[in-house]
Amino acid sequence: MTENSPGPQEPPRQDPQDAYWRPQEPARQEQQPQSDDTTQEVVQEQWQPQPHQEAQRETSPESPGTDTPADPWAPQQPQHQQVLFGSAVGGQGQAGVYVPPSTTHTYPTPPPMGPASPPRRASGLVAGVAVLALLVGGGAGALGGYLVADNNASSAPSALDVPPPAANVSAQAPDGTIEAVANKLLPSVVQLRTQSGEGSGFVIRQDGLVVTNNHVIEQAANGGTLKVVFQDGQTADATVVGRDPSSDLAVVQAKGVSGKTPVVLGRSDDLKVGQAVVAIGSPFELSGTVTSGIVSSLHRPTRAGGDNGSEATVMDAIQTDAAINPGNSGGPLVNMAGQVVGINSAIYSPNSSSRQQGGSVGIGFAIPIDQARRTADEIVKTGKATQTVLGVSVQTDQNGGARVSQVVPGGAAEAAGVAVGDVVTKLNDRRIETSDALVAAVRSLAPGDKVTLTIGNGSKTVTATLGGQPVPVN
Question: Which SUPFAM superfamilies match (predicted)?
Fold first, then answer.
């Protein structure tokens, strides 16, 4: 075994095979040269043979070509080096009893020195037998464990052996659950297909009269094709009855259908933040998709065309975290009683672009059904919609509020005494922080409604009766 050069001192290490070796104080560490032909382990120390004591074996460098060193058992002068299994350990003292490692080494035969100790190689044989016994025992244990495990696997109960539970034959889901709302509304929700894409809508009359968003059917209104796909799979051609770009609403009529299930319209003026709602539509052409959430906010000024939309498309939106994606537009937003309280119209999607549509990030907007009902009713009766107006042009003031930049002659604002430069900060009890907020607040009301406007810090208030004008359709 190769002798290492002296290194950092460390405690002597016990060979795992040597159960009887006990170190004493080690001898001082020095480097011992060895022969190029043969490298052997050396244990050098002051040695005095004693009766019945095991002889310690040491080797000295051999001459090249010499098979047996001369008088290898002669006593040597004290040295200051001790090498244990190739590791030099410094220190002095009597060495412990040495038992050779399991690796076989060739040693010269010592001369007779009284009663000899029992051969130490017997311990190696015993160790070998013990290892063999352990291997055999371990193999038998593994085989027995395998047989037991195999037997347990075949006899252990399995979920696959248990028969399935009885089918749920309940005809109705509990009232107020998402399941109940979905069962009630799905037959009334349709998919609308145009040459430019697809969207959603819902039936308001048995003969296939459908309410949807203006931006869903806008291309069809200008001469394109329009088809309505009902929940039962029936497909029908449709025509545009009328539309209102300013509120992003439209009504279409499916041809040759009857017996369809209309929705139940609720109201949006009593909605509360945190109230549970369900959105139904056809996102990404996945018709009949149901998602749920809550009303996140109310009276949120939103432009139907996003940030690039004009002031003419601002709506007083319901904000919800129910997942709304491209294709959901025109579908219903429903309360837990199964009543339509809004029409899904827009989403906030920070990573969207003109070439790539964004998906839901938990911020969706719906047109309040109170406003949509009024507009749809006008369209059904007259084919046109009337837009509620105050008779002013406004801009957002840097200190907050809507600054009046122009007053329409003969309009509601002029009659109320509103002047150019006035900053409207409240409409009734609703705070106005931007120009869009004032437009949205006015659009949420009907022509003929009276409102109180707060000017500036409240030093001036006026009462105005809102007017109306036909919505221009290009």
Answer: PDZ domain-like, Trypsin-like serine proteases
Which residue among the candidates 247, 282, 292, 329 is catalytic per the annotation?
329
For the entire predicted model, the pTM comes to 0.66
349 tagged catalytic? no
CA distance 374 to 364: 22
pLDDT of amino acid 361: 86
Burial 92-118 (b: 16+ CB within 10 A, else e): eeebeebbbeeeeeeeeeeeeeeeeee
**Given 18, 244, 248, 321, the catalytic residue:** 248
Exposed e or buried b per residue across 229-266, where buried means at least 16 C-beta atoms within 10 angstroms of its C-beta: bbbeeeebebebbbbbbbbbbbbbbbeebeebbbbebb
248 assigned to active site: yes
Domains of the chain by range and CATH?
Answer: 1-58+75-112 (no CATH), 178-254 (2.40.10.10), 271-349+358-371 (2.40.10.10), 386-470 (2.30.42.10)
Query: What is the number of other CB atoms lying within 10 angstroms of the CB of residue 161?
Result: 7
- Biggest CA-to-CA distance, the chain: 138
Tell me which residues of the chain have a pLDDT lower than 70: 1-154, 171, 304-312, 351-358, 474
Give catalytic status of residue 155 as yes or no. Answer: no
Q: How high is the pLDDT of residue 112?
A: 53
